Amino acid sequence: MTEFDKLGDFLHKFILLVAEKEQEENFLRGGMSLKYLELQEELEQMQDQLNQVEIRRSKP
Q1: 56 — pLDDT class (breaks 50, 70, 90)
Q2: 3-state per-residue secondary structure call for 11-33
C-alpha cells in the first residue's frame, strides 16, 4: 500500500465520518423544529380555548 493509498483511505474514512456527523446534526435540528411546530400548534389551541372562554364570559 503506497502513501497515496493510505492518504486516500484516510480521506475516505474522514469524509464518511464528517457526513455521518452532519446527518446527525440535521436530524437533531429537524427533530427540534418538529417539536417547535408541535408546541406552537398546542399554544394556538390553548389560545383558541382561552378566547372561547373569554367570549362566553363577555356575553350577558
Answers
A1: confident
A2: HHHHHHHHHHHHHHHHHHHHHHH
Contacts of 9 (CB under 8 A, 6+ apart): 1
The number of distinct structural domains making up the chain is 1
Distances (CA, A) of 37 to 32, 43, 48: 9, 10, 17
Q: Which domain holds residue 48?
A: 3-57
- Give the global pTM: 0.47
- For 2, the 3-state DSSP assignment is coil
> For residues 30 and 20, what is the distance between their CA atoms, to the nearest angstrom?
15
Q: What is the pLDDT of residues 5-49, one digit of tens each?
A: 998 999 999 999 998 998 888 877 777 777 788 888 999 999 999
